[in-house]
Amino acid sequence: MKILKTLNHSSFYWMFFLILFLYGFSTRFPKLLLIIPVGLFFLYLCLNIKDLKTKIDNSFLSYITLISVFGILLFIGGIFNLDFEQRVSDASYIFLALFHLCYIFNFEMNKSSQHRIFQNLFLSYFILSILLFILLRTGFIHWNRYQHVGNCLAATSILALGIRNIKFKWIIFFILLICVLLTGSRQSLAGILFVGIIYVILNRYKLFIALLGFVLVLITNKEYFIEILSDIARKYDMFTISRLLVVFKQDGGGISIITRLEIYDRLISELTVLPNLFFSPYKKEYFPHNYFLEYSLTSGILIGFIFTLFIFNNLYKGMVKNRNNILLYLPLFYLLPFNVSSGIAASKYFLFFIILIMRINKNDLIR
Questions:
Q1: CA end-to-end span of the chain, whole Å?
Q2: Which of 4, 159, 230, 301 could form a disulfide with 122 if both were Cys (CB 3.0 to 4.6 A apart)?
Q3: Mean model confidence pLDDT for the chain
Q4: pTM, entire model
Q5: Pick from 249, 240, 19: which is nearest to 117 by CA?
Q6: Are the CB atoms for 152 and 187 separated by under 8 Å?
Q7: What is the rounded CA–CA span in Å between residue 199 and residue 21?
């Protein structure tokens, strides 16, 4: 297959290590281990010294500046409040791991065509997701990592839709989707559904209207369809479907949703115009489960508004100019479910891949 020829290009191996490090390095790792992504960065500099003369675009610099502001305030607040386990740890991850990975990713995109970027991303994700799925099912990695495995499989399934061979594309997509259903990751399935809805709204509005009618039928006969799907999920061991259906059953997800809304209401009242170094969003009763809210709580309403506006402006431009580009939908996959989850540990994926949309929006990538 043509896509396997990607293995002959050095750019694939850089991309594979970027994705591996993005998934492999946690914000809770010992700081000494963060030397590894720093080492990868300097190795990249040494091996690509000729290409580094390329000017860094303003969008990337603005983005790095906004994330730096958050990281610095997080670090200072953590030092003042002796919060080394959470805020200082997250700030260390941002500066020692995320920044270096983003820098390499940005330069790799400068050197590659859109088609090459897609091939490198898809093959990297495919290899990693299949490996993680096998390790999860065989018990070599702990079952509580199912969210990460489902996350990787779901992202791969979205990228698979960019394969040009129609039969091969759908075969790969459905195989990966079945694997997602077997992991038990509701977030991953929600991400796929979110991307599907956005794609239909942008490209197939008539189909979207028809789907709204179908959803109304489902809602009016909710209990009946839930029972059918529950039986299928139990019969075929589809753990993800079983967990997702709990949310739609009577009072199944009510407590969780109400608690989340109460937290949001409480935290909004804590917002200040200027940065707040003494407020910790990591206390259990104040954990925001939303990166944009977390950013604003730390950096203040003004800087938080600038950051949010910057991100959604890039997303809007991408959806208007590149709605048929499969690369657009990878960052969108990480936007919703992983920005209402567990802070920087989950939102790091979106913070990494938003750079992809910035590059696509420039329209200077070779197609």
A1: 20
A2: 159
A3: 80
A4: 0.84
A5: 19
A6: no
A7: 29
CA 260 to chain centre: 20
**Mean pLDDT, range 154-162, rounded to an integer:** 93
Classify burial at 29, counting beta carbons within 10 Å of its beta carbon; exposed 0-12, middle 13-18, buried 19 or more: middle
DSSP assignment of 40-103 equals HHHHHHHHTTTGGGSPPPHHHHHHHHHHHHHHHHHHHHHHHTT-IIIIIHHHHHIIIIIHHHHH
CB within 8 A of 3, min separation 6: which ones? Answer: 119, 122, 123, 163
Identify which of 114, 8, 109, 132 has the alpha carbon closest to the alpha carbon of residue 60.
109
DSSP 8-52: GSHHHHHHHHHHHHHHH--TTS-GGGGHHHHHHHHHHHHHTTTGG
Question: What's the pLDDT tens digit per position in 238-249?
Answer: 655 665 555 555
SS3 content of the chain, % helix, strand, coil (to 5): 80, 0, 20
**DSSP string for residues in 185-198:** -HHHHHHHHHHHHH
Burial 291-309 (b: 16+ CB within 10 A, else e): bbbbbbbbbbeebbeebbe
Q: How far is CA 221 from the centre of its chain?
A: 33
